[in-house]
């Protein structure tokens, strides 16, 4: 977030190389687009007479997945949907946003056959723009070098223009208070000193005070400001590359360790379908969302292996990152990383044995470059079984009544990981599947702070609000937030669900049994007040405001003893919500970050929390806007939106690279199974020294 | 919590066997009592003429650690304390609570020499009693079998008295609303069906409606009530022992996995001192607190390996578990597990390869039985390096400005684990040390619910508040809370610290730089308001009420650029606080559970949040009572008290054994180091397939 450079490895691949699909594997309707398909889509769009304008740049190319009932029917048979065959052929379509002639064009492309064709076309008339392309950013980055005012600014700072590099930053949206530039696709650019011999840490050396305004369609600098000169922080002590900091490697050292699986891996990947323990799910890739988990179902081993639905589709919908400095060069730092830059497009190649352990397997992704040609994102998803030393369940029975025994079941989980590097920040985004039936989504933040150059070298010199922490000489780590918003289309045991607030409320003991009390000295207790959310307004929750268990339940399915089957939310840290004023522009665009939880009825078009055109969006097409309709969410096909949020006050330890900090949400079966699904799981008797089921007495 | 049976393996050991100390290792002043020492303490107490009354029962025997300045001087040299020699000999003393003649006697025993001697004696005159002994519980459990009203109650339920077993439950304290019994040491007993052929799960089959009152000193039943008969739930489906549920083991199966460390373990245990990576600390054992971590210091590798203090002493001070059923048989279920039952005394033998992974090492503990003789608690602490697949820090630099490279440092942590089984519940209590300088305390709950028998077999029959969830036929899982309160005597870089609230507060943009604003379209932002807590009242925080970073800082130590060195608190889930009414008796005893954070000045006698005599305590000697003095906590030796809290609404998955659920607190260096301490840590180049530091461009 924050984005002085293009952060992705661009590897163009030929369609021939990219066709390496498993020969046994027939396409799943939710499979991400292949390189071949992307090539065909490009050809279809370029061949279409509907948009003759050139040049034409591809901003988004993704799967336009078949309608949900058809996918459900394909995956689970006809019981839950209109169609009738599990071997049915579903339409294979792509959704494309391309820019040409100063307009954003939307195409639906049929790619079922070998020769793709455009099915429909529309021009986007509303506010906002699609994601930046690589080409946008690379071309813009070349502009300053030949822009005389900038060359002069650099010279004025004692630098050579060859030493600096600039990056494209979205300018946010500030209504009439920002110049409109005739509705052009305008960004800002800021610059840093780039000298990899001195340091890899380009973000540590900002050329503060200079902001350019660039029209990306005209690809020209249309505004320029050099407000003030600040000291460029020194390179010394900022590098983090192993070959620059050592040898000797004097940092703390833990010994190497590798997980060995004597019986091999426990999961099977067939195309994009994954089977592991009691889980089945589909792993997709999208250039905007990154990893997409679909059709996750859990086998109920106590019910003869019945496959039970949990999650139709889950992905990161948006990452909103507002900075907290109102100054001229910083006020617009209000990034929507997914909608502006694209999480899949910025997925980093995972480093084997470091980003993922040695027992991981890897998946590639493909997306379209600005010319429409396929780009291979290599090793951007990994899957591994996690042996963290945790315990799934345990109990030791005491000797007191004659039976001493311990039963322990270690926990092993399956992690699906992607690392998205949005310029300076690195998000490790995990989907962790647990045999107990939980899915835990984990956001881990690392990478590099956005730094602001300042003339102070010591805290004692500071007499103003610097809007951040002095983290090293001449350097402020600017205050900011991270709001990672997930789209989680939970389908608990079927499509129609309700959202339940089991409010945990204090009670006085009335002393009277008819009113829940009892004639005892106890004066108070708490109980659970069951509340069904009827409409969207009731589906919005700030989880810090009052204690409650929040559940998705299937009101039509009950356990044998009559409890509604459900999954509940377990937030695990990182529950911050936005503190921006409701009337502030960035807040209007991302007003959904005022509450962690929103529930909406399923609508195939409502995928992106900040709207389809998030770049310079105005808030008229976002999660909060949709929810204003206050639709019914009771016993409907509903979607959970959950935001993992952090207020980030930087500390010196965050420099030059930040130690990882994490937040998570677990969705956990709650009256979904008849009992703990792991009771009949085998103890680890083959593990070294295991004695998990010991008997006898002392 | 909740405690129908004695839950500990009692293994009496001879002093000769127990003397297996490392020959090179000279006693550390914080080492827990050895078997030899416990034997000598017993002899000294029994030989003392100060308390001639017999029988005399030992309720607590623990180390009376030397005064803090002396320990600091021993450990770190004279700089921080009055004494002068790091090889100084410190007094070796024990603190003993014994019951004789109907009184609680306190002894201080000198055990420096071979023949121990009583140094001081006092009689406890206030309210409350010491922890139960094993003997208390075993003797009480024998009473009902020959108590005619109970035999009749059992017969009335169609059971044989030989099929039932009863356990001692603390009766809480309810002022004048509960019979005083002349101030006697009174408990309640409740019973379950015990038939290990039918099921191991004795808690699943309560003999509901029957409560006995027992005087433990007279060891007699002094009250009896059989209020109503309820169906005893069936045994079928309640067992969890591997040999009863399989084969076949039809539960979800993940493959076995073992961490292999090709270069061996990275930590060294010398007696009770542990060295690992950049950490050094001492692991103790106490029959009340369980694991005690002392003298934790981190080496600042960027400062030439300077040893810097972090934690003087940390342990679980109390676990308060109030149940939420006001009914006659349940209202008093308001357990203080540490103070009533003892966490160390109830530590379970860890199951190798299951409770702890194969690469773990184990430690024993010793405590005193009620006769004063040493009891060996075997393998109750394990230490292992955790390879969870996490990343300590990472960054991928984009290709845009000519430098594509990724640097990744995997995270390896060191875990110190104990499992405490308090009757039905199993607490896995971890201290996780991280190379980044963090200590993470993790509470993981598993075990068995406290269940209440009820005549309902289906939710549809229920028309009342059952104060819990119908989790199987005839069985309610009763609502309850868990409040695990830690005593964390942080000493950040020295003894005198301050508690800082960095309040994260929203601001309007004034448009004027002099007031922190700027003339830009941005209307709002947040900033940090620094607040030093002056006195204890300001040291109490409900962390859910408003966003803030909470820190312990050393106001006398600053980083080179002038930030106060500190550690901050990062709560990670489980932030519930008590919902009981302030005037309710259990709340008065544990009123400190209304806020997660309390800060007090260090006082050697303030160890136990519910008071030294927690059993039937009245709240006059607890954390909240001490804090009413509102002492200064600014630039003092201060202690953090942090409560990990959960409201537990049971679900069917919690039956018959609960899947683990966790909460945590991390204390993390924050302007403690000059920069990320892991920058100079070697990348894992020797790991298979590692390519953590890749260069080049595409």
TrEMBL record, chains A, B:
EC category: oxidoreductase
Signal sequence range: 1-20
Cofactor(s) needed: Cu cation
GO annotation, biological process: amine metabolic process
Superkingdom of origin organism: Eukaryota
Domain Copper amine oxidase catalytic: 259-678
Residues annotated as transmembrane: none
Entry keyword Signal: yes
Pfam families: Cu_amine_oxid, Cu_amine_oxidN2, Cu_amine_oxidN3
Post-translational modification: Topaquinone (TPQ) is generated by copper-dependent autoxidation of a specific tyrosyl residue.
Key word Manganese present: no
Location of the Copper amine oxidase N2-terminal domain: 28-113
Residue ranges of domain Copper amine oxidase N3-terminal in the record: 130-230
Cofactor, free-text remark: Contains 1 topaquinone per subunit.
Gene Ontology terms, MF aspect: copper ion binding; primary methylamine oxidase activity; quinone binding
EC number: 1.4.3.-
List of catalytic residues: 337 (proton acceptor), 425 (schiff-base intermediate with substrate)
InterPro entries xrefs: Cu_Am_Ox_Cu-bd, Cu_Am_ox_TPQ-bd, Cu_amine_oxidase, Cu_amine_oxidase_C, Cu_amine_oxidase_C_sf, Cu_amine_oxidase_N-reg, Cu_amine_oxidase_N2, Cu_amine_oxidase_N3
Protein keywords: Copper, Disulfide bond, Metal-binding, Oxidoreductase, Signal, TPQ
Chain positions found as 2',4',5'-topaquinone: 425
Recorded family membership: Belongs to the copper/topaquinone oxidase family.
Protein name: Amine oxidase
Organism in which the protein naturally occurs: Oryza sativa subsp. indica
């Amino acid at each position: 977030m924050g984005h002085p450079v293009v952060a992705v490895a661009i590897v163009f691949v030929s369609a021939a190389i990219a066709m390496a699909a498993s020969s046994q594997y027939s396409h799943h309707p939710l499979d991400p687009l292949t390189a071949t398909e992307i090539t065909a889509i490009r050809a279809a769009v370029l061949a279409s007479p509907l948009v003759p304008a050139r040049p034409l740049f591809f901003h988004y190319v993704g799967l336009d997945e078949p309608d949900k009932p058809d996918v459900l029917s394909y995956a689970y048979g006809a019981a839950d949907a209109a169609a009738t065959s599990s071997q049915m052929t579903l339409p294979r379509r792509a959704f494309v946003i391309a820019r040409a002639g100063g307009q954003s064009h939307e195409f639906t492309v049929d790619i079922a056959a070998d020769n793709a064709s455009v099915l429909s076309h529309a021009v986007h008339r509303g506010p906002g723009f699609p994601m930046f392309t690589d080409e946008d950013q690379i071309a813009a980055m070349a502009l300053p070098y030949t822009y005389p005012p900038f060359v002069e600014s650099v010279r004025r700072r004692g630098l050579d223009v060859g030493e600096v590099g600039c990056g494209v930053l979205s300018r946010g949206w500030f209504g009439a208070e920002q110049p409109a530039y005739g509705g052009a696709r305008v960004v800002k650019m800021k610059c840093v000193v780039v000298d990899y011999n001195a340091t890899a840490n380009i973000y540590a050396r900002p050329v503060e005070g200079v902001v350019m305004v660039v029209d990306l369609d005209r690809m020209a600098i249309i505004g320029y400001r050099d407000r003030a000169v600040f000291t460029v922080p020194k390179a010394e002590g900022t590098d983090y590359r192993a070959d620059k900091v050592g040898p000797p490697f004097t940092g703390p050292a833990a010994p190497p360790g590798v997980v060995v699986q004597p019986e091999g891996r426990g999961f099977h990947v067939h195309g994009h379908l994954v089977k592991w323990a009691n889980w089945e799910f589909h792993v997709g890739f999208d250039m905007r969302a990154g990893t997409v988990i679909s059709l996750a179902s859990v086998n109920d081993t106590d019910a003869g292996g019945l496959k039970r639905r949990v999650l139709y589709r889950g992905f990161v919908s948006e990452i909103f990152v507002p900075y907290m400095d109102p100054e001229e060069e910083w006020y617009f730092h209000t990034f929507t990383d997914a909608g502006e830059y694209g999480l899949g497009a910025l997925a980093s190649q995972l480093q084997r044995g470091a980003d993922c352990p040695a027992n991981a397997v890897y998946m590639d992704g493909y997306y379209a470059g600005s010319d429409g040609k396929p780009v291979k994102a290599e090793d951007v998803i990994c899957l591994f079984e996690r042996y963290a030393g945790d315990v799934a369940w345990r109990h030791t029975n005491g000797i007191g009544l004659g039976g001493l025994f311990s039963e322990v079941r270690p926990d092993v989980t399956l992690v699906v990981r992607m690392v998205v590097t949005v310029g300076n920040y690195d998000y490790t985004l995990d989907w962790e599947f647990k045999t107990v039936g939980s899915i835990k989504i984990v956001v881990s933040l690392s990478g590099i702070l956005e730094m602001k150059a300042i003339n102070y070298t010591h805290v004692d010199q500071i007499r103003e609000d610097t809007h951040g922490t002095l983290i090293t000489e001449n350097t402020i780590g600017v205050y900011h937030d991270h709001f990672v918003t997930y789209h989680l289309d939970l389908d608990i045991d079927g499509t129609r669900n309700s959202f339940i607030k089991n409010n945990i409320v204090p009670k006085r003991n009335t002393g009277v049994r008819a009113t829940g009390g009892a004639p005892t000295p106890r004066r108070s207790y708490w109980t659970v007040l069951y509340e069904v959310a009827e409409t969207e307004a009731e589906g919005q929750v700030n989880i810090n405001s009052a204690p409650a268990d929040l559940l998705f339940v299937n009101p039509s399915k009950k356990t044998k003893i009559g409890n509604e089957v459900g999954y509940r939310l377990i937030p695990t840290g990182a529950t911050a919500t936005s503190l921006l004023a409701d009337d502030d522009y960035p807040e209007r665009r991302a007003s959904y970050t005022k509450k962690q939880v929103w529930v909406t009825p399923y609508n195939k078009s409502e995928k992106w929390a900040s709207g389809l055109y998030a770049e310079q969006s105005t808030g008229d097409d976002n999660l909060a806007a949709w929810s204003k309709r206050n639709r019914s969410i009771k016993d409907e096909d509903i979607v959970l939106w959950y935001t993992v949020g952090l207020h980030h006050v930087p500390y010196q330890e965050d420099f030059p690279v930040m130690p990882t900090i994490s937040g998570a949400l677990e969705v956990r079966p709650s009256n979904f199974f008849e009992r703990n699904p792991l009771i009949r799981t085998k103890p680890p008797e083959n593990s070294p020294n295991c004695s998990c089921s010991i008997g006898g007495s002392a």
